[in-house]
Specification:
This protein is of the alpha/beta class. Helices cover about 40% and strands about 15% of the residues. It has 26 helices and 19 strands. The strands form three sheets. It has a seven-stranded parallel β-sheet, covered by helices on one side. The protein has a seven-stranded mixed β-sheet with strand order 10-11-8-9-14-13-12. The radius of gyration is 26 Å and the shape is globular.
């Protein structure tokens, strides 16, 4: 490296250490990069760029507090430092530090606009742009600058355009899915079954991984169920990777990363396929000329909002979102309430068990039923649809209660083993991660998380960066209006907890009204959602995978769509589920819906019964139905291409909810 030579010539050349750190960071050698930045700072403590570079390493490593300190130091040394300012703003968003929030947002917007005006790469990343009060044009402009950077990078390859087939010639439509997330990642948790559900009479499926094998069953499932699977992490040259895709004769190439970690958009910039499509993994536009369509739906991306996108909109029949919960968490299709003579209950979310087969437990107690008429709605068989939940009254709950109190992993009733729901990672890591089906009876209890048995529990399990001051203010208003209610959040990250509590207390709310839990393994994360009464969604950026998780748990979710894609996904999920009454028109309506659910207990029970019923009766979690719809969208794209018609919005498959 030239930097090493410079250091050898001048051992106190701080710039060389910082630049070498940047190179090492690009090579994923984080520790060596950190040492270089630290040495640069040691040589020149006033070197603002080195402090900012060190902060970026801390930020990427999850050490947000250290990153904040280093960014602040950089800005003290160099006040006019857009990259440091915007990255500091993002770190403060991650930990919900809202000091000077309004002025910070105003300055960030001005920085972005100035950079766009000067045709510079903005300091706000495309994936973070939905968190700030930017205009649609600004968000699209940020994405466009990153797309232009991809085109610059490939220009040095001096590759001519590929020639593409114009017809199928009697063959099948070849679909290529490109992702860095074929492994233990939320994207695979959502779509891992889709390659296997594709109709091989019509389509031929190729999956191209941008990441190495992580040896999980998620990776194994995708690689074994796709007809063709190629590990492009072994092909670091984007030109050669694009050549391989073109040689496979791909007709429609699907970008599942967008601007998320691990993306290689340069491959798409080379245009190895005649049709290139954004799908599922990135909640926004690419801003590029090389992506033709974005697969979305009429609720998430209404046609009147099409200007937000550089791509043409291709509508799925219902939601573009999907989850593999029906396959991954089959044990959650059944639940039973646990009770005893001393501890009777008519609530379905205080102490419960899940399992593929609960019959073996019923022989130890008296079995009864909790019957609840669900609210009427789409997909309901009748106006009086009834959800029946078994109640198992045991002679004593003492073995189970003792297991929970002492943190034991298991207890037994006769020859029936019961798993403590907070210890799955101690007994079977693959079940805990969702890689393997759980085949034991597992208990979930509010007691495990310090939740009051008699309270109305509102929850949100998103990362804390999705909360902004208006959202927390709305939640505080709801808690104040609903007696004996609490809000259940995650330490995601833990350093955000004191900031949330400080803001709540300053608004006049007692700190004990907000209960934090640690981040949990995937199976527990999904299953414990059953213990909440209502999920309060984050409007600026919804729970996407998290929304599917909480709905699979049977917990109603209240959302409020804004205009960005990221803010409308939960509405799309609820419309497909058949629960439009949970989609608020504005912030006042959001509060009204949440307060009604918290104060009208009969209404809450009916709504919970409706969500529990519809998660299996609607199309929301149906991989076969979704995959057929996806194939229909691909077919529409190809038909236009084959007829040599221009790329345009594809809206004809969309189902009307009116």
């Amino acid at each position: 490296m030239h930097y090493k030579e410079a250091i050898h010539i001048s051992p106190t050349f701080a710039d060389a250490y910082s630049n070498m750190g940047n190179t090492l960071k690009e090579m994923q050698d984080v520790q060596s990069a950190m040492q270089c930045y630290a040495r640069a700072i040691q040589i020149n403590p006033a070197f603002a760029d080195a402090h900012s570079n060190l902060a970026s390493i801390h930020k990427d490593s999850g050490n947000v507090q250290e990153a904040i300190v280093s960014y602040k130091t950089a800005l003290k040394l160099k006040p006019d430092f857009p990259d440091a300012y915007c990255n500091l703003a993002h770190c403060l968003q991650i930990v919900c530090d809202w000091s000077d929030y309004d002025s910070r947002m105003k300055k960030l917007v001005l920085i972005v606009q100035d950079q766009l005006d000067k045709n510079r790469l903005p300091s706000v990343h495309p994936h973070h742009s939905m968190l700030y009060p930017l205009s649609h044009a600004q968000r699209k402009g940020i994405a466009a600058r990153h797309a232009a950077l991809c085109l610059e990078k490939i220009s040095i390859l001096h590759k001519g355009p590929y020639e593409h087939p114009k017809t199928l010639n009697g063959g099948r439509l070849r679909i290529g899915y490109v992702s860095s997330d074929f492994g233990n990642h939320p994207t695979s948790h959502l779509m891992q079954s889709i390659p296997g559900f594709h109709n091989r009479k019509n389509v031929e499926i190729f999956c191209y991984s941008l990441s190495p094998d992580d040896s999980t069953s998620f990776r194994g499932k995708v690689s074994s169920e796709a007809e063709h699977f190629t590990d492009l992490s072994k092909v670091p040259c984007n030109g050669k990777a694009a050549d391989l895709i073109h040689q496979d004769g791909i007709h429609i190439l699907v970008n599942m990363n967008g601007y998320t970690k691990g993306a290689r958009n340069e491959i798409f910039a080379l245009r190895p396929a005649p049709i290139q499509v954004m799908w599922l993994g990135y909640p926004g536009t690419s801003g590029s000329s090389f992506m033709d369509y974005i697969i979305t739906d009429v609720t998430t991306s209404p046609i009147e909002m099409a200007e937000q996108y550089s791509e043409k909109l291709a509508y799925m029949p219902k939601t573009f979102f999907i989850g593999d919960h029906c396959q991954m968490f089959q044990h959650m299709q059944n639940k039973a309430i646990l009770a005893s003579e001393e501890r009777k209950t008519d609530r379905d979310n205080v102490l419960l068990v899940n399992g593929v087969d609960l019959q073996s437990l019923m022989v130890f107690g008296t079995a009864s039923e909790l019957r609840q008429v669900a609210l009427n709605g789409p997909k309901m068989c009748s106006a009086m649809e009834e959800v029946v939940t078994p109640v198992i009254e045991l002679p004593s709950l003492q073995p189970i209660e003792q297991m929970i109190e002492t943190g034991q992993s298991l207890c037994s009733l006769g020859d029936v083993v019961i798993q403590n729901g907070v210890t799955t990672n101690q007994t079977n890591n693959k079940c805990a991660s969702g890689e393997e089906a759980l085949n034991v009876i597992i208990v979930s209890a509010r007691q495990q998380y310090g939740l009051p048995d008699d309270a109305v529990v509102y929850c949100n399990f998103n990362q804390l960066y999705k909360i902004d001051p208006p959202t927390l203010e709305t939640w505080m208003n709801i808690l104040k209006a609903v007696p004996n209610s609490v809000l259940w959040l995650l330490r995601f990250p833990a350093v955000g907890e004191p900031n949330i509590l400080r803001t709540a207390v300053s608004s006049g709310l007692s700190a004990n009204r907000i209960i934090f839990s640690p981040v949990a393994p995937k199976e527990e994360h999904v299953r414990r959602g059953q213990l909440a009464d209502v999920c309060l969604d984050t409007p600026i950026c919804n729970g996407h995978t998290t929304g599917m998780d909480v709905l699979w748990a049977g917990t109603p979710m209240v959302t409020m769509p804004a205009e960005t894609l990221a803010s409308r996904v939960a509405s799309s999920q609820l419309m497909t589920l058949g629960c439009p009454e949970l989609v608020a028109k504005d912030r006042k309506d959001y509060e009204r819906i949440a307060i009604k659910l918290g104060t009208d207990h009969q209404y809450l029970r009916k709504m919970r019964a409706k969500v529990w019923h519809l998660r299996t009766a609607s199309d929301l979690f149906s991989i076969p139905t979704y995959t057929r719809g996806l194939e229909s969208v691909y077919a529409k794209m190809w038909e236009r291409y084959e007829r040599d018609e221009p790329v345009t919005h594809l809206t004809e498959l969309a189902v009307s909810y009116s």
